[in-house]
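Throughout our pipeline, every protein is held as a single compact record rather than as scattered files. Nothing more is needed to write down the fold, since each code stands for a local backbone conformation. The record that follows is passed on verbatim for readers who wish to inspect the format.
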Amino acid sequence: AGAAHACAGAAAGRAAGRKGRPMNYRAEIPYGAYWSTPFARWQGSFAGLHSIEFAAHVARGELARRGIEAKSFDYGVLGFSVPQQHAFYGLPWLAGLIGSTAGGPTLMQACATGVRTLLAAAQEIEVGLASAALVVNCDRTSNGPHLYYPNPRGPGGTGVAEDWVMDSFGCDPLGPHSMLQTAENVAARHGIGTARQHEIVLRREQQYRQALADDGAFLKRFMTLPFDVPAPGYRKSAGTLAGDEGVSQSTAEGLAKLRPVLDGGTVTYGGQTHPADGNAAIVVATRERARELAANPKIAVRLRGFGLARAPLARMPEATVPAAQRALAQAGLGIGAMDAIKTHNPFAVNDLYFAAQTGVDAMAINNYGCSLVWGHPQAPMGTRAIIEVIEELALRGGGWGLFAGCAAGDTAMAVVLEVTGA
């Protein structure tokens, strides 16, 4: 009787969340045709690996495990946000490294790159220009490039230098202001204090421990563990990782001792994520090809809606709400219909604002982990989060899922998925 009551309540909630007919994209994600490396805190185990070469190395192995031939792809999308040597050649280079002749773009939209590249693949399939696409996102925040821009007219002919990673974290040229300042602006505007942020941190770490249960059973649904860390030449092993590297283990007492990073602010080092390295990938295909490539063809993963939004200047965490609303509108659904919700939360402030504006329970979203805990490698972050939404829905027996994440420039992107037949 209790179970029946719960099911009836869930059905009523979904009914209340329905707004209209959902978008019916031709493109689908073949169930199981996706993967992620563990994420390693910057200057950790992946710090010496070229992110594109590393992503190709991982893709070769993961495609082989799934029995998918690289030559079967007629399109590809590569996403990254930190350039490295030869990055100019982008997707064609990565495709060639894995044995594919597919072409396609290389995209960069900071932490929204994961959704942007997924949409790019879906659009190519939607207009009939491709039948199977490989979407790969990779980044290495470690050892970020130092760039020099020549300027013969500068004083003495000197140019301008930039540390790509650190300077981007620290200064939005439209402000100028740091990314951290955007979180403080939202916290001040909406009365979000440090203690509440720390409650979210503890809850997110607790949820992540669900993914570690039973010897990492949830992670092993999409991640090869233990993970073999290659040496830079990719011919030898440099060691293994049991899972994500550098994840914090916080306590209420420890967090309470931390002071805000900015004078007069609310965000501590404990209330924000850490930069990281890694890569993740998703296959996107027509419905017919998706069945052929799926690990279980009875399970369908359908794309139902995408959303893009931009918040006012220096209020980056606010952008996730209108992005999610637009994705939900395209899906013909309200947020009450979502069975799983995951957010990119570089700051705990993000989740508290999102929950207050949408009415969701801040403590009930981001099951099994999120970027606040497992790190912030930028481009692949959204890809991994989308994969985790799919697997959470599969464990539930199917349902609707939402991922929304903010990005530099006060923007955000979101996607709504449906999993059936699980």
Observations:
- Confidence is low (pLDDT under 50) at residues 1-16.
- The CA atoms of residues 207 and 368 lie 5 Å apart.
- The chain has 13 helices and 15 strands.
- The radius of gyration is 21 Å.
